[in-house]
Design brief:
By secondary structure, this protein is of the alpha+beta class. The protein is built from 12 helices and 14 strands. Helix content is about 45%, strand content about 30%. Strands 1, 2, 3, 4, 5, 6, 7, 8, 9, 10, 11, 12, 13 and 14 form a 14-stranded mixed sheet that branches.
Length: about 550
Amino acid sequence: MLKRIMQGIVVLLVIAVVGVVFALEPIAKFMIEHEGSKQVGAQVDVDSVDISFYPTHVTLNGLTVANPQEPMRNLLQSEKVSADLDAKALFKMQVIADQVLLSGLQMYTERSTPGTLDGSMPPAKDESASAMPSISLPDPSALLAEEKATIQAEVTDIQNGFSEIEARWKIKSEKVPEQVQFDQYKQRWDELKDKNVIERIAGAKELRDDIKAELRQFDNLKEDLSTDSAAVKSLSSRAANLPAEQSKRMMSKYGLDQGSEGMLRFLLGDEVNALVQRGLSLYQETIGKVASKEEAAPSSEPATELPVNILIRKILIDGHQVIGGEKLAYSGEINDVTDKQDYWNKPITMALRGGMEQQSQLVIDGIFDQRNDTVKSVFNMALKQLALSGVSLSQSPELPLQLEKGIADIAANFSIDGDNLKGSVAGLVNQAKLLVAQTATNNKTATLLATALEDVSKLVMDLSVNGTVNEPAIKLKSNLDRILGDVLGAELKSQLGDVQEKLKTKLSADYGPQIAKFQDKQNLLGQYQDLLGDREAALRALIKEMM
């Protein structure tokens, strides 16, 4: 997304310069919004544009960029974006600047109108599934549909494993001495019996050496057979356990394996998932896109031209976010921003600091290193002694859980190595007061839960994220899980068990024929084992006879 935004801003700045040169500011403003929206894939608005020359200085006032993924939210809005730019580079669609100022920045703000390109309203969220005390869980058929490719890949891998072993032993079996070879050895021994002692001894030694050479081949084949037999056993086990293992994997991937230990996750609905996914999508669309290595196109330009599209030494940022009803101001910088980091041989670094009432409460540091084939990123955030009030924890209309007040300490650490993801968020809210608001219906569960939470003064939450950027495994636990589990746990466990059982049943039904064929291959190597045993026994018996 950052790359698309930066490319969009490049287009805006070029249009702005051209517009002012020809004294067509109204047209320039129109084209900024029109072309910028096409670049981002959502509405881009700007209040006004100021440009001065010698040096070329461009300022976009009141820039708003809608979020393509969430049309009723802005990806960002800034009071001012300004920079001294290289005019020659700008006309070549390059942003070359020592310093860019993003002033009055806010992220993820609400919109009064949808930011879709056609201005249409997004479909309303279906809130009927969030009613309590029933806990909304995914439909097994929907889960299987989403995971079909992954499951089929496992089935195909098992099939390929069997096929490779079978093909390998068809070739190996051709090296096993035929019965005619044994008959020849027997005939040679019978002929030696009629020879004199010296000839018989010499001939027997030569015959034993030939037979021992054959037996050494048998030893190698037996070792290979033992290894492949273990592989067949493992493949057969994978096939037999496929319904159970795949249903378990899906339950874990979608956070359904935590039972009452992850009860808060269910009250928060999909908010936690959405938050993590939103951050990962932003990462992929920013660092991921910027870090993508593109083949350089042949160019007839002089060698002095910079081989980059974006080259900014420093982006100075100041802005604020409203968190828990409080305005948290921040400022900081992003350094060495370029789409080709090997130009500077430096990673992109980010540092932000902020707080309320002159208190240092927010610390954010990040390193995004794309210099090697594998992009590595590290992001750390600490938020201390943040006063929260009126924070909605559960969006369920049947069971609205709210943090009325509290003092929060939050620490987050994430690292991404290529596609591998690892992260954690630890949250502690002291002096907490939790409320279950009055519901529109007479909900016994809400009443029980409100009573259970009356004496809670501390909220502890631990979020862990593992897996990959595209398939993160998210777990959320809290000190409320036991309390919530006492109220809702029995029903949850029953429903979770039902979901997993349905998954197993459907997997068995959908992949049963293939699994049955795999089970038939358990004795795949039996014939080769018998063949080796019979031939080896015959040769060893012949040697024994010659002793």
